[in-house]
Amino acid sequence: MDREHTLKLLQKMIGEDKDFRPGQWEAIEAVAIKKQRALVVQRTGWGKSLVYFLATKLLREQGSGPTVLISPLLSLMRNQIETAGRIGIRAFTINSANKEEWAAIEEALAKDECDLMLISPERLNNEHFLKEVLPQISGRIGLFVVDEAHCISDWGHDFRPDYRRIMRIVQMLPKGVPLLGTTATANDRVVADVQTQLGPGLTVHRGPLARESLRLQNIRLSNQSERLAWLAENLPKFKGSGIIYCLTVADTERVTGWLRQKGFSAEAYHAGDDGNMDRPALEQAFLNNEIKILVATVALGMGFDKPDINFVIHFQRPGSVVAYYQQVGRAGRAVEKSYGVLLSGAEDDEIQNYFIESAFPSTQIFQDILQELEKSEGLSLYEILARVNTSKSMAEKALKILEVDGAVGQTFDKKVLYFRTPNPWVPETDRINRVLDLRRSELAQMQAYVDHPDCLMKFLLEALDDPNPVPCGRCANCQRRGFPADVSPRLVLEAEKYLKGAQVIIKPHKQWPVGLFPDQKRNIPLELQNAPGRSLCYYGDAGWGKIVQIGKYREGHFPDKLVNAAANIIRDVWNPEPFPAWVTAIPSCRHPHLVPDFAARLAESLGIPFHLVLTRTSEAPEQKTMQNSTMQARNVVGTITIQKPIPAGPVLLVDDIVDSGWTLTFAGYLLMKSGSGTVLPFTLAQASGRIN
Amino acid sequence: MTISPDSQAILLLCSRIALSSNPEFSSLTLREWNPLAKKLISASMRPADLIGLSSQDIQNHLEIDGENSERYFQLLQRGGALAIELERLASLGIQVMTRADPEYPARYRERLKESAPAVLFYAGERALLGQPGIAVVGSRHLDEAGIECAEFVGNSCGLSGLVLYSGGAKGVDTISMYAALSSRGTAVGILADNLEKAIRTPEHREAVSRGDLCLATPYSPDTPFSVGTAMGRNKLIYTLADYAIVVASDAEKGGTWAGATEALRLKWIPVFVLDHPDMPEGNKLLIQKGALQFPHPFPEHYQNLKAWLEAQSTKIKPYSSQLSLF
Q1: Which residue of A has its CA nearest to B90?
Q2: Which residue among A16, A50, A590, B36 is least enclosed by CB atoms within 10 Å?
Q3: Which domains does chain A carry?
């Protein structure tokens, strides 16, 4: 009877002709009727959201309180929320982006007019949420849903410190509050771990993971130019829309630029660019098929649900089978035939190893932060950065872990302040090493996947402990055919030229970092700000990057081909307005001639004079060892001086590698204060912080 | 942190945490909880048995009216929110115990009986609550003699292994507490407000994490200061200690006066008052009301403090103990 009633609701939501998928009713019954704790392991697109929406509806009909759904993917749930509205489920989300709606939501809660509350794990540590919002539900939580429950386990591929907090909360839940954990990717070890963490009595509902429509293929092309050429040659063969996954922000931009040059409708999608990218708008345009190809980092993450994705191509190899399966699994949810092509290249391992090494802050960073906090009643993030030499993102990572460990708390007094709690803290070296070892073995498994000679789907399913892995009969290995692995040499040359000519922009700083000049305004006056500059390449990358690396650290000299490449870019590609009237260089005590020598040759090639007007009074530690803005800027100021008078007119300011940009900013500031014209920065390479 | 089902139920009923600032159903006062606890006992039930019952069930089991049973039911519903808030408090270093916990201070049970707070929040070493020790009380504003006395008693406690009890507030409390801690002793502060904030002070935090200090309060850890909470916690300072020394008191007004007269009336422990030529009017009146004199400067070696207090207080018999409620 319950089943029939629930089926009717389901049909109201998704269509009269629809039925439960295998496992859906059982999961609903477990939490909504039997009030159990259940873990649902089903592939993405199986319909986990139907389970918690229908369970919510049943529970609400029985008079239970609203469902609290904890998920890291709120922004992507708009469509599902609309669907749930068809059976009268009123769902709300509270996040930092919808402050203006909070009052209305709180009122809805108070009137018991909210059936489902979606929150991010971070909300659970938000004072306003805990003190104002949660009590409005008067705590009557009818169902507790933990989305992406594999994050609870250290063995899960996706380490999210906040989930440890969720686990502790769940352990303190009184009896009788049903719990539903959901995940698309959890192997046996993760499932067992989640079971221990969430306590006994957790029933596991597990379905097959295979995707019937997906055709997998692996292609090894070591050079980026070959892979770009492959894309240009093969993309026209794919129908519909698709995703190209890259490992770094820089790569998404590069691939997008190339594809556009070749006439494709492509957009980059990532969390770089200071988060300025309008990702919801891009998602929407992609959902509406206004964009054919989204070139994305993992920022296009779990839960993004577009049913008609025809292909997922990896420009670089992901770090684990789980991550790969999740990404490639976005293809083919509601299309007959879809393709998952994994291109892998020479740079993959280097990038992956970098990700692994930078996954956790060092013990030193943790201890330095704690030491500073212990001296105070509370410090803001910027106050911490002014005292601890670490990057902002590392500091944030460390603070997050310390918070979840109970060593650090957060309070709000005009700004967020972090403070030390009395709880003891010891570095969890073993735990961290265990996670890192796991990452390394996952990487090895992924390396094995690339060269796997037999069924690719079966390989993935076995790695994910699918209950019934069988050869798919569809992948390139089963079919003994697929997309060609060779590419036209003409296109490779063109791609090579593109890679070498691609513009890498240096964004000028507009403000000094916090605490650098405490008695000055932070804004740099507009007339003393650098113009946007250019770099020849990303440091160490394919193209020019390797040549710069060798020139700087091995040869101690930059070859003429870099001078020519730079001159070409500046003259033909960049062609700044105004064009520089003279050239100067950032000197260095460590390599006194390296940059001036290069800059002088560049000036000659551009046909304008070179004047060395800047001097270094003392050698600061190399800028790349300075880990955050305040430290970096402090490192520069005072070590650069200028010899006046200087020539008038716009000046090309040359350095070898731009990292934080503070050296260029401060040198430009001095030049313009001393009467130069516009300062146009140019560097051979940009140290690309590898973020995704 | 693990928490027993009984404590869970008591927290849901008696504490304000995870309730909105203006809730439809307010939490139970002690006066409201005690009769309910008695009803539970006579129905052979534990507090935990209430969780999961409907309003009607509660009404039937305990023979109470619908209005009250609905209130209990509503309060008991917020287990999810309570779990989230308790987890947050634990991560800040704040724990909780209730009268149903075996670790709950025996001295509160024995001396306060039904007035013993149902719920205590604390940070630090809870075993200190009720160890032999001396309470120091007095107003925030002290004269020279008061400061010297607060320091002397604090140091003496620290050096002779006695716990220094105080209200953890500014003035005499802090002076005596830091004196005890700086002579490598231990201290307990019973706060009237904002435990969350108190443990952010570096000195407090360090002592708490060393296990030398326990800060406790019967009020929600974010409670702002009020005269009511300050008055309410006075008895919680006296009843943990073996002796109390009132350093300075206003006459007929103020928290120190109210607390000291209450302690004299209810005779939990011997109450001493600092006696010196320039003592405040309140001190004199307290002595008239039966408080024992504590000379300034103290005439003997600091090590003899406890023995001296003991000898002086033979005149007073503390109440005998009885069994108590949850």
Answers
A1: A406
A2: A16
A3: 2-206 (3.40.50.300), 214-353+444-497 (3.40.50.300), 357-430 (1.10.10.10), 503-686 (3.40.50)
